[in-house]
Structure of Methyltransferase domain-containing protein:
Amino acid sequence: MPLGADPDLLASLRADLDAARYTVEGLEAAWGPVAAEALGRDDPVPALLELARREPSPAGVLGALFVLGADRPADQVDRALPGTGTVGAERLGLIRLADGVARALVDLRPYALADESGVAAWWIASDPGEMALGGELPEEHVLGAGAASGTLAQILVGTGTGSVLDLGTGSGVQGLIAARSASRVVATDVSARALEFARLNAALNGVALDLREGSLYEPVAGERFDRIVTNPPFVITPRGADGVPAYTYRDGGFAGDGLVEALVRGAADHLAPGGVAQLLGNWEVRGDLDAARQRVLDWAGPLDVWVVERDLLDPAQYAETWVRDGGAQPGTARYRSLVRAWLEDFAARGVTAIGAGYVTLRAPRGTATLRRFEHLDGAVGSGIGAAIEAGLAAHDLQRALPDDALADTVLVVAPDVTEHRHYWPGDADPTVIELRQGTGFARVRRVDTVAAAVVGACDGELPVGAIADAVARLLDADPDDTRAAVLPVVRELWFEGFLALG
Ligand SMILES: C[S@@+](CC[C@H](N)C(=O)[O-])C[C@H]1O[C@@H](n2cnc3c(N)ncnc32)[C@H](O)[C@@H]1O
C-alpha cells in the first residue's frame, strides 16, 4: 500500500501527534536545549542519553523513533499513538514491527515557520537521514525539510492569492508554505517516491496540492504561474565517473550547472505576466568572474533577473562539501576517489570556482530592465523576501523617475538603518562612514560625507534634491555637482532598502 494511503488512519495520526505535543518546542522539551543543538550538528548521542534518563513522554518516544532512528518497544509507541497504534502506523508505512519492537521506516518530524504570512507548523515525513541510517544515503533518498528548504522559504516574495508551481517538491514543504495563501499549488517531482511523501504530508497536514510527476517543466507544459519556487537538485556532479552516487534529491543528472541553466531558461515560458520565480542554485566560474556572472544573467533571456551570490567556493571546497554530504568519511579511500572525480570533472571544463546563491526572475509587463548580479556573503537578517520585494518595487518606481523627478521625491531612512563612523585616534573627521541594515540582507554600505548627510536628512519632509542643495551649501560645494554625485547613490540605497518612499 502506498505511504499514508488510509485517510481515517491519517486523521488518527494527526490527532495523536497533536495530543503528544509533537512540535518543535515539544521535542526540545523532551530532550533539552543542549541535545537539540547537538542534533543540529547531526549528533544524536546527547538526545539519546537525555531520553534514557527521563520518564518516556509521548513526544520523546516519537522523537526517538522518527528523528533519532532508535528502535522503541511497541507498547511505548502504542501509548504515544493511542488512536493509530503501532498496527495503524505500520499500515501507513511509517514503521515496521518485529518481536515487540518498532523501527521507523520514515523520518517524521515537526517543522515550524514564521514569516510575513504568519506562523505555521506542520509534520514532514521523508526518508530517514544519515544520522538514523548510520551510513551513506541511498540514491533515491527523499529529503526532509533541511537547511536549503529553510533558505528558500526565507527569500520568497509574498505568494499572494495567485497560482504557484513548486518544482522538485520532494517532501512537499514548499508546497505547504505556498498553499497558505495561494489559490492553487502545483507541486512536481521527477521522483515517484518523493511524490508519495508529498502526498502523505499534504494529507497529514490537511493541505491540497496538485501533485504531478515529471522532469523540470514537463508536467506543466503550456501552463503559466504567478509564482514558481524551486529548491532544485543543483549540486554539480561528475557524470560518467565510476562510483559517483547520483542522488535524486541533489543531482538532476545534467553536466555541470546545466540543470540550473535549464530551470532559469525555462521560467519565461511558465510565468504569468508580472510573475516571479525564485530558486536556489549553483553556477560555474570558468576563469573570468565577470564573464561567469554575465553567463548566469544571460540565462534569464527576456526576464528581469536579480542574482544574489551568497558564496563562492573553490573546486576542492565544493567537492569536499558534497562528498561529505552523501556520507563518505574524510580519510577513507572512497572519500579520496570521490573528491578526485569532482576535481577532474571541474578541470575538464576549466572551472575555477563555484557560485551559490539565490536567483529571482520576473516576467516583465514590457521588456526586461533589471539585470543585477551581486555577491553578498556574511550573515543576513530576517525579512529577505520582503527586501527582495521592496527592491523590485523600488526598481520599477525608479525607472519612471529621471534624475530631476528623483530630486523632487521625498524619501525616508528605513527604520532598521544605523550610521557608524570610524575615526583615526585624535582625528576630528571620520575615515570611514558606514550605513548598516539590521534586517533583510543586513547590508553594510560605505558612503561619503555628502551621501551620509543626505541620507541622514531623509526624514520624509524635504525632497532629495532640496536636501542635496542644502548639504552643498553647508559644505561650500557646487549644488549641480553635488546632485550629480549623490543621486545615483540615492538610487542604489533606495533599491537596497536603506531608503524608502516617504
Ligand atoms: C533539494 S530537493 C528539494 C525538496 C523540497 N522542495 C525542499 O525545498 O526541501 C530537490 C528535489 O528535486 C527533485 N528532482 C530531481 N531531479 C528533478 C528533475 N529533473 N525535475 C524535477 N524534480 C527533480 C528531487 O527528487 C528532489 O525531491
